[in-house]
Batch of 3 targets.
Target 1
Amino acid sequence: MNLEKIIPKDGPSIEEVEKYIEKYSNEIIVIKCGGSVLLDRNLFNQFVEDIAVINKLDLSVIVVHGGGKNIKLKLDKLNIETKFIDGLRVTDEKTIKVVEEALLELNFEILSNINNHQANAISVTPQKNNIINVKQQSKELGFVGSPNKINKETLLNIIKERKIPIMVPMGIGDDGKFYNINADTAAGAVAKELNARRLLLMTDVEGVLDQNNNLLSEINSILANKMLEEGSISGGMIPKINTCLDSVNNGVTGVVIVDGRKPHSILFELFSDKGAGTLIRK
């Protein structure tokens, strides 16, 4: 394997990559992307390149993408108002159609860009090959579900063929209807079901910060729970940390909140000593 040809010039050093490849060789990496990564062209291109690199290194990676900002643009255009309850979008019949459309467009864009990098990606959507069976979260939220069962066989078969599943965070309920799922929650459910070595949650923040706003490169679940209680983890970071804790307590070796605004953050997180965010372990 010619690493010089595979690793981007502004990525981690070849020596470091060599050191870490073995660590992930028979493991699964689940990556959730959202936020700026999907909107900023430059970050998007680097993200796509990073995913392609992992595939070319013969490692197994699954991508779950969000699309909140994309959905919002579409809803605004159609003058459909959105209400949120605890950070989750209230989703009626009209909204779920728009959500579906926005996510499928994004899915296709990620897929075709990865394949343009001579890697091999495949779309995983409830329309084509549903992976997630959901239960409705609450009547008030409408078509918002939480994962109930994960069909891991389909995912494992895709990985066996050395392809990258690109998953839409949606599932089907027992009523046969489509439900939107919080992308962090969907990625966490997949990572747990497959006992992933790593779950990477791409965000628009540096990671978890201490009281003096310094980045914590690693924390365990005891410290994370303490920070939640004290309120030093707040806002949109709360559901992320809850996903992290749920994952590390249920079979995932480590979860990383990755700063998606950093160049090649995925490669630096997986294949370098310094990482690119906060690692959370049990």
Target 2
Amino acid sequence: MLDHKTAQERAAALVERACKAGADAADVVYSGDSSESIQVRLGLLEDVERSESEHIGLRVFVGQASASIGSSDLGDTALDELAKRAVAMARLAPEDRYSGLAPDELLMRGPSPDLDLVDPLEPSPAQLRELARAAEDAARSVPGVTNSEGAGASSGRGIFALATSHGFARAYETTSHGLSASVIAGEGAAMQRDYAWRSARHAADLLSPQEIGQLAGERAVARLAPGRLSSGAMPVVFDPRVGSTLISSLLGAMSGAAIARGSSFLLGKEDDRIFDSAVTVIDNPLIPRGLGSRPFDGEGLPTAQRTLVEGGRLTGWLMDSAAARQLGGVPTGHASRGGGAPVIGSGNVHIAPGSASPADLMADIKDGIYVTELIGMGVNAVTGDYSRGAAGFR
């Protein structure tokens, strides 16, 4: 895997190759990552994984036609061939009057913000194994826990670089750490399972393995001796670990590309109140050490904090440059890149806290459900219909 300086230079070199091959404009993304994970079960080593990968993606424009191509071979000969093939593909592609690079005047020009996304400490395999073992031991020590599905610890490092033919070339590095445990409580047909996990950019920001394990064990035991409810309408409160999926569905519907296609349940609801007036949803990709933090988006635009829902009302759509051209707006810095054209992606999205505690929220509910688990993928992004299985506490 390349370091971030070399990755940036390699991306810029491929842009130059594409322009020499006949492209009117081009951009290149490089992504590389390495990771290591350890799994233990019942105190014994269960699995060890080490992976490393890198990919470079080229997008070229010939007039208003474009093509994307990628490779894991970063050699000079392979990149020369990549540039030629991409230009040949674009010459055969249909034109799209909304395609193109981000507007030059909107690109990031100043210094990148220091987001502290890199942890200098890299745990050894032995240290990862000890973390996983400690988490499982803590979970198994909870009274009522009878078996274990295992515990895991992981660490990783990633590089992202972007270069464009209109002068943008930058890269940034990230690290990641994770810790999890999953255990079983009860016996026979009365068994229940649950889990706990955390991930962070810096290992110091994780919960301790003892806290992770205890949380997993207590959650599993709390599910013992479940009952069933009759069908009916009743108040529902979502636990934070599942409530975030509701916001994920909202973000998909707020995509400018979905609005332009007419395939979003939010179409025509720009001025409607879709939440209670107390609800505010914020996206802040500039939080230091944030899992979704990034200094620039997938088109080279600077990122910034934005309120997505204010007073229960939408503030607009999430747009890359193509969607902005279609909708007559301005790109919002929400372009995300894999190896091809940009897609919509968010940063660190959260619901601003209200004035009521969880206990206060539930105090006036005579008969309701606290949902801790959702099952299935029954969300229709076009109509907004929502139907999923759920488990939790009455």
Target 3
Amino acid sequence: IAELRAELANLSPRDEAAKNHIEQLIQNLEQHLNEAPNDADRGTLRENFSSTIERFEAEHPRITLILNQIMNTLSGSGI
């Protein structure tokens, strides 16, 4: 998450919408990690990650790579 936040800090001001979208995703992830999520919450989190990856794949490859790493980590831990 720290690596993702660092990458967000490097986005240009014209990417403010992208930055806000990813910040919201980070907040959802942190909330998910701090609570005991149910299966629906896990599915929603996975869907949010997948759609964000698709959305940013072309314009922000570094962010996409980090999101994929986070998603793989979550998947490996059963989330």
